[in-house]
């Protein structure tokens, strides 16, 4: 049975999944700085900064949630700190 090898499948601009994951992780520090300065960042701002690459966008939101940020929902499309 054949299976897809995630290391060789090309996504946008010919990047592999692992390369997209590394890009998303590296961009998170910039997004965290923006959230700390402004209090929040809109999903549309993140999408613009990742150059409309859907995989990197989704991974970025995943890693922000993992770092403890509230990534919102379709009614509130913004990322902010959890209120403690």
Mean pLDDT: 87
The strands making up the biggest β-sheet line up spatially as 1-3-2
Main sheet? 3 strands, antiparallel
Percent of residues in helices comes to: 40-55%
Number of helices: 3
* Alpha carbon gap, first and last residue: 50 Å
Structural class assignment? mainly alpha
Shape: elongated
Rg, alpha carbons? 14 Å
* Secondary-structure element order, N to C: HEHHEE
Percent of residues in beta strands: 5-15%
Strand count: 3
Can you put this structure into words, describing what you see?
The chain has 84 residues and is mainly alpha-helical. It is 50% helix and 11% strand. It is built from three helices and three strands, in the order H-E-H-H-E-E. The protein has helices at residues 17-38, 43-49, 54-66, and strands at residues 40-42, 69-70, 78-81. The protein has a three-stranded antiparallel sheet. Strand 2 (69-70) and strand 3 form a beta hairpin. Helix 1 (17-38) packs across helix 3. The radius of gyration is 14 Å and the shape is elongated. It starts with 16 loop residues before the first helix and ends with a strand. The model has no long low-confidence stretch (mean pLDDT 87).
